[in-house]
Design a protein that fits this description.
Structural class: mainly alpha
Order of helices and strands: HHHHHHHHHHHHH
Radius of gyration: 24 Å
Mean pLDDT: 79
Distance between the termini: 12 Å
Strand content: under 5%
Low-confidence stretches: 312-317
Number of strands: 0
Oligomer: single chain
Largest sheet: none
Shape: globular
């Protein structure tokens, strides 16, 4: 237990340092972009006097290090800051965008886990045979297709030609759960690549586990094949997949920008794109903090699950 506590403390400290580094990097990159929020608000024919007045009202005329210091001070008090363009709290932006992104991530993860584990175990059971070759070939081919290309293909076929599903979520707002048809295509795009990568990981882990000495010993004891696969081999095969699953959920929660932009879903990815376009630095920084914390928590949880499933892997060493 002391080793586990030490590991968690080290990972949390490293996560805090990583979050700070991400915030500083995002601030520096945003400052390097041409123009600022005042220029974005001024429009296509900006008036220098109006831009100067906007900069003064937004406190953009102050040195960058002073603005960063004020923002970090507010962050330590639990405040993510205020949008430069609308005056709304950054936390409100994140709350508004988090719902659709969380819904997409939850639906995708709920379908992803049984699909990838089922395909991986099926391929491992029939290693080298037709089912294994078919699953491996299809997953490899689907994984090679970029998300935006797959999304456009699905829209063309199922929305424009067959007219079975809506092409985007325009008009539904954040009430996506009340319009499940608008979620089908985005979830299919989000599922495609993670199912391929995770199922191949599970397959490889199952094959290694089934060839291990402890499984051979279980067979000598006369334990049934199903019990060997699901009680002895599968936990060891899930260890590497658990970490990849955590990275996938992190990718889903931290704004799937391509999918949200393609299907016009008002999630965190859309909030981030709008904030970058408007040079709204506090919103970008607030999202960076949220994304960093989610990444740290999810990866820490994945390491703990991996240690629980396969302590011999030495995750906590």
């Amino acid at each position: 237990m002391s080793g586990l506590r030490s590991f968690v403390a080290r990972r949390l400290l490293l996560g805090v340092l990583q979050t700070i580094a991400v915030v500083l990097l995002v601030f520096a990159l945003t400052e390097a972009l041409p123009g600022d929020a005042a220029v974005a608000l001024a429009g296509d024919q900006p008036d220098p006097a109006r831009i100067a007045a906007l900069r003064e009202a937004m406190h953009l005329d102050r040195p960058a290090h002073e603005r960063l210091t004020d923002w970090v001070t507010g962050l330590l008090h639990g405040e993510l800051g205020t949008s430069l363009t609308s005056g709304r709290p950054v936390g409100q932006y994140i709350c508004d965008g988090f719902g659709p992104t969380l819904l997409l991530a939850t639906l995708t993860a709920a379908l992803l886990v049984p699909a990838c584990f089922g395909l991986g175990v099926l391929a491992a059971r029939h290693e080298g045979r037709l089912a294994d070759r078919l699953i491996s070939s299809v997953t490899l081919a689907v994984y090679a297709v970029p998300e935006f290309a797959l999304g456009i293909l699905l829209v063309t076929v199922f929305a424009l030609q067959l007219r079975w599903l809506p092409p985007t979520a325009v008009g539904y707002g954040t009430d996506l759960l009340g319009h499940p048809a608008a979620l089908v295509l985005p979830v299919l795009v989000l599922l495609a690549r993670p199912v391929c990568s995770l199922s191949r990981l599970v397959r490889a882990g199952m094959i290694d586990a089934l060839a291990s000495p402890y499984v051979a010993q279980a067979r000598r004891y006369g334990i049934s094949g199903a019990r060997i696969r699901y009680t002895h081999a599968l936990p060891g095969a899930l260890a590497p997949a658990a970490q990849q699953l955590a990275r996938t959920v992190d990718w889903l929660l931290c704004g799937v920008i391509v999918v949200e932009a393609l299907y016009v879903i008002p999630g965190l990815g859309t909030v981030l794109l709008d904030a970058v376009a408007e040079r709204d630095v506090p919103v970008v920084q607030g999202l960076a903090v949220v994304f960093g914390m989610l990444t740290v928590v999810l990866n820490l949880g994945a390491d703990l699950v991996t240690h629980r499933l396969a302590p011999r892997a030495g995750v906590i060493a």
